[in-house]
Structures are given as structure tokens and as C-alpha cells.
TrEMBL record:
UniProt KW Hydrolase keyword: yes
InterPro entries: Adenine_deam_C, Amidohydro-rel, Metal-dep_hydrolase_composite, Metal_Hydrolase
GO molecular function, one term: adenine deaminase activity
PANTHER family noted in UniProt: ADENINE DEAMINASE YERA-RELATED, N-ACETYLGLUCOSAMINE-6-PHOSPHATE DEACETYLASE
Protein species of origin: Evansella caseinilytica
Protein name: adenine deaminase
Catalysed reactions, as listed in the record: adenine + H2O + H(+) = hypoxanthine + NH4(+)
Keyword list, A-Z: Hydrolase
Length: 582
């Protein structure tokens, strides 16, 4: 039998918690004289909250019969206490690593992260990755995960990466609480029974399935519901939200660096007379560091209230609603006996940023000062070390002979175009919108070479090991610039670098396998901002270059992608031009 997340405390621990109620043992903390949110009644109650280590053991008017010197009593007079916020759709690898995001989020009241597992799934051995989940859970943050069914790209070893035993091991882990997100749903509709089998396994163990259905119509969503998809975060308008709700799906409203849709969607829903929020969630959907300067779920609550959502409902959209959706309301999302002691103390119902935050009964924000415990995490134990590129680029690697290039429509949409410049030149003309583009295996085994229009018009050399698969991206006007950027990336041991003829201009070191940084969120915000300015000065005209890098190979988006297998037509599910072995 698969153990769920609710199987959290041992029999001995539960007996001790019972002793607190019986007056035999003192609680470790008491939040006294509190106005606390009753999520069932959707109203404010007054009383005391008893906590024993990491669990709420009592909520009501009583004060404990037994108090010791070690019992911390917090007078919450004039404070409003709400459950810790839940970010149910986190991509915890957007330059930061999962603990960096969790720390930053916790200190602002978002004490539970439900995380994408794709990068761990693809980059780390199964046994090590699942052990990592257990160790990450030892921090004050509640760290939960998804189990992906597909890589959202074309992998050379796709069948080896997504084996039955590997996916099943993830699904069965108690800290994995959903299947998906399902980006390759078209493959399932077209008859793929492997993914459907995993989806049915997910339903058997009472874990929801998250879809990925941008622009989907009634027919598609209906079919997804029949396949078992429970919710979706890709609605971009109020009408699309209603379509999901009308067909029985939970809808998540997104406010992210690539899709800041939340305010507009709420305006459209309210204009349509909609005032029922019980099946709505909210998410930052993997926003880049700079986008979260104003906060995480606390900021989304504020935005929702500004659009007319009642405060209690706005809080519910990132506390009780997600907890109930994930069948975890016995553990999270409300203030009641038996729940994990994740609590936010607020000064008013107009300011969702807490003055004080308890995460698993431990202070991570106290009197408006962040205090999440700092400590080193043994990333190297799991194979996440500085990237060693022990191979060289050779002259023959800079051979560009494909008849089509890739044009950027926006940050993430790519379409094909017929090449207009002679790619045998050492440098493309300054007047051209084109750059040389290369995707190269991180182990140097294969490459894809073409041209890209619309990324930048005055870029000497740019290199990134940050990508969907961890392979190396090179972009620039000059082949010598590509080589210079690659060599700088090697020297930096992974990350993102931009070079001019005179040398490096901007860089973001990513010392964990070339994919994640160990720097603080504030440092990453500054690094990201400097890189965006440098790229903008060289002709990058969009708003989010980090997502551009991530999605160049992402086959859940139209129209073509540059993947490990080569240039790939998303609609036809066909490799147009294969990658070349080096």
C-alpha cells in the first residue's frame, strides 16, 4: 500500500500530542488571544492555538493546563492568524534551487511548495533523487512534488528516461502528491497507453493529475476529463477559466513572469457575475527571481483583493482550496487540530505579508524579520556539482547548412523561416536580424546548428547551460563570438554568459550542474536584471530571456523546437532535420 503524505507522525509522537490535550505534557508554543481564520466557516474566530513541535494540537477558547519554562507564549492580540500559504505549482529550478525558493517563500508566508520534479528526474539517479526528497523535507518548509509523465521535449533516450519502474517509484513516494503536469496530452489522445497507464495508477492512489492545456476548447477539455485530468493552470482569460470549471476541473489562476494574467482574469470573471472561488487556486508558475521581488503567494492574495475578491476567499485560494484539491486538508491549509503548524500572523486583513511566520512550528519570520535557518545542503551527494565541459569546439562544429531557421514570435513561440543569409560567413551582417544558433549535447556527443531570427541583432556571443535538458545553447552574430562565449562558460563551470569582443559583459554562474545557483534570491535578482539589461542593449526585445532559454526545446509549445533529436515540428510530431553526431 502506498503511504500518503498524511502518514507523517509516528505512534509515539501522536501519543505525546494526545498528552498535551490531557494536561500531562505542556505545548511547545501557544498563540494566545488570536483572531484565527476558520476555513470551514469562512469566518474569524477568537481564542488560543496550541502547538506541540510541528503540529497544531488544539484550537479554541481553552488555555493549556500545563505550561513550562520552555513553552513559548505569543500574545496575538490585534493579530489575524491564517494558515501558511501554499504554492501548488512551483518550478523550483529557475536559476535558483528548491531550497533557495523555499526559504524566500517561507519568509513571506508561503510555507508549502508543491514542486515540479522534471529537472531532478532527468539529471539525477532515481534513488538519489528520491532520497533528496526526504532530506529536503527536514527543513522548516513543507516540500512536496509532482511526478512527470513526459519530458516536454524530444529526448534521444526518451524511452530509457521514462521507464515504468522509474515513474512508478516517483508516484508512490509519500511526498509526491500529483501526476503531471501532462504536457504531451496529444500523445495520449492519439493512443499512447504508456502514459495513460501511469495516469490510471495516479488515480488509483488518490493523487490528482495536472493538465497543461493552453487554448484548449470544450472538446479537448472534455476528453482530458475522461482521461482523468483534475485541474489545469493554463487558462489565459476569464472565459477559459469558466470552461474548465463548467467541465468539472479545478482552475488555477496564474500570475507569472511569462503570463501575468491574474488581474485581467479576475476582472473578466467579475464582469461575468462570477463570485464563487472554492474551486480556484493561484500560482506564480515558476517565475524568474526578479518577478518575485514583491513576494510569492502573499503578493497574489494582495492582487486578488485589489480586484474585488473577499480577503477570506483570496486566502482560501492558496490555503484550503489547494489542500482540499490535493486531498491534504487533514494536514495543510487550515487552522485545526492535527494540521502541520504552518501559520501566518497578519496585522490586518488588508496586508497578506505576515509579520510572523511559523513553518512546521519553527519561526522563519519574527517581528517582520526573516529568520529561516541557513545551512549548507549536500548537493554534491546527489551529483549536482560544477559543470565540467571536458571537450572542445572544433572548426567543423561551425558548419551551418540547414535550409530553414528558427524565428522568435515572442519569448517562447518559435516558427520556421527560410534562411536569407549565407551562413558560411564568419559573422552575419550587422543589419540582419539573424544570429547563429547551436544546441550541443552537454557531453559533446551531438549538435544542432541553424540560425535564429529575432533573439538579438547585435550580439557577439552568448552561451547557456541553463536549458530544458541541460544541454548547451550558443547564440551570436560571430562564430568567433560563439567560441569565446563557450570558452567563458567552460571557465565559469556552468551558467549563462554574454561576451563582447573585449570580453565578458554579464554572467549568471550556475554551479549546480550548470542549471541552478547556490546564491541568494536577492543576488540572483541582481544578476538576472544585469543580464536582461545587457541583452536588451544588444537587441533582445522581449521581457523574459530566461524562459526563452528554457523553452527553445519545449515541444508543448508551437510551432517548431530545437531538440536533442534535431529541428522538430510540434504539430506533425516529426523531426525535420536530425541532430548531427560529433
Amino acid at each position: 500500500m502506498v503511504k500518503g503524505f498524511s502518514h507523517y507522525w509516528t505512534k509515539i509522537e501522536i501519543r505525546r500530542q494526545l498528552d498535551v490535550i490531557r494536561g500531562k505534557t505542556a505545548p511547545t508554543k501557544v498563540i494566545a488571544n488570536a483572531k484565527w481564520l476558520n476555513s470551514f466557516r469562512k469566518s474569524w474566530m477568537e481564542g488560543n492555538i496550541w502547538i506541540y513541535h510541528d503540529r497544531i494540537v488544539y484550537v479554541g477558547e481553552r488555555f493549556p493546563d500545563v505550561i513550562t519554562e520552555s513553552t513559548e507564549i505569543v500574545d496575538a492580540t490585534n493579530k489575524y492568524v491564517v494558515p501558511g500559504y501554499i504554492e501548488h505549482h512551483a518550478h523550483p529550478f529557475q536559476l535558483y534551487h528548491p531550497l533557495t525558493l523555499a526559504q524566500y517563500a517561507c519568509e513571506r508566508g508561503t510555507t508549502t511548495m508543491i514542486n515540479d520534479n522534471l529537472m531532478l528526474f532527468l539529471q539525477i539517479d532515481k534513488k538519489k533523487a528520491l532520497t533528496m526528497l526526504d532530506n529536503l523535507q527536514k527543513t522548516p518548509a513543507t516540500m512536496l512534488w509532482w511526478a512527470r509523465y513526459d519530458a516536454q521535449t524530444e529526448l534521444l533516450d526518451g524511452n530509457e528516461a521514462f521507464t515504468f519502474s522509474k515513474v512508478k517509484a516517483w508516484l508512490d513516494h509519500p511526498y509526491v502528491v500529483q501526476g503531471g503536469e501532462l504536457t504531451d496530452w496529444l500523445r495520449v489522445l492519439q493512443g499512447d497507453d504508456t502514459i495513460l497507464h501511469w495516469m490510471l495508477d495516479t488515480k488509483d492512489i488518490r493523487k490528482p493529475i495536472e493538465g497543461h492545456l493552453p487554448g484548449a476548447g470544450e472538446k479537448t477539455i472534455t476528453q482530458m476529463a475522461l482521461l482523468g485530468v483534475d485541474g489545469d493552470h493554463e487558462a489565459m482569460t476569464g472565459e477559459e477559466v469558466l470552461r474548465r470549471l463548467d467541465l468539472g476541473m479545478t482552475a488555477s489562476l496564474r500570475y507569472s513572469s511569462i503570463r501575468p494574467d491574474l488581474p485581467g482574469i479576475l476582472q473578466e470573471l467579475h464582469a461575468a457575475g462570477f463570485r464563487q472561488y472554492d474551486h480556484l487556486l493561484m500560482t506564480t508558475d515558476g517565475s524568474t527571481p526578479g518577478f518575485m521581488k514583491k513576494g510569492v503567494m502573499d503578493h497574489l492574495i494582495k492582487l486578488a483583493v485589489e480586484q474585488g475578491v473577499p480577503f477570506i476567499d483570496a486566502v482560501g485560494m492558496c490555503t484550503y482550496n489547494p489542500a482540499k484539491y490535493f486531498h491534504m486538508e487533514d494536514m495543510l491549509g487550515m487552522i485545526a487540530p492535527g494540521r502541520i503548524a504552518n501559520l501566518n500572523l497578519l496585522t490586518s486583513t488588508e496586508e497578506p505579508l505576515p509579520t510572523d511566520v511559523l513553518a512546521k512550528g519553527e519561526w522563519v519570520r519574527r517581528e517582520s524579520q526573516p529568520c529561516f535557518p541557513r545551512g549548507e545542503f549536500p548537493w554534491e551527494t546527489y551529483g549536482l556539482q560544477p559543470l565540467e565541459l571536458d571537450w572542445e569546439l572544433k572548426k567543423e562544429d561551425f558548419h551551418f547548412s540547414l535550409p530553414i531557421g528558427v524565428e522568435m514570435v515572442n519569448e517562447v513561440i518559435l516558427k520556421p523561416y527560410r534562411l536569407s543569409n549565407d551562413l558560411s560567413l564568419e559573422a552575419l551582417p550587422p543589419s540582419s536580424e539573424e544570429c547563429f544558433f547551436m544546441l550541443i549535447d552537454r557531453n559533446g556527443k551531438w549538435s544542432v546548428t541553424t540560425a535564429m531570427k529575432g533573439f538579438a541583432d547585435n550580439l557577439y556571443g552568448f552561451a547557456s547551460s541553463f536549458s530544458n535538458t541541460g544541454d548547451i545553447i550558443l547564440i551570436g552574430k560571430s562564430k568567433q563570438g560563439l567560441l569565446a562565449a563557450f570558452n567563458e562558460l567552460k571557465k565559469q563551470k556552468g551558467g549563462i554568459v554574454l561576451v563582447d569582443p573585449e570580453g565578458p559583459v554579464a554572467s549568471i554562474p550556475l554551479t549546480l550542474s550548470g542549471l541552478m545557483s547556490t546564491a541568494s534570491m536577492e543576488t540572483l535578482m541582481a544578476k538576472e536584471a544585469a543580464m536582461k539589461v545587457a541583452l536588451s542593449e544588444r537587441g533582445y526585445r522581449f521581457s523574459d530571456p530566461i524562459y526563452s532559454l528554457l523553452f527553445f526545446s519545449a515541444t508543448h509549445l508551437p510551432y517548431i523546437r530545437v531538440t536533442q533529436k534535431g529541428i522538430f515540428d510540434v504539430k506533425k510530431k516529426k523531426v525535420l532535420f536530425p541532430s548531427i553526431m560529433r
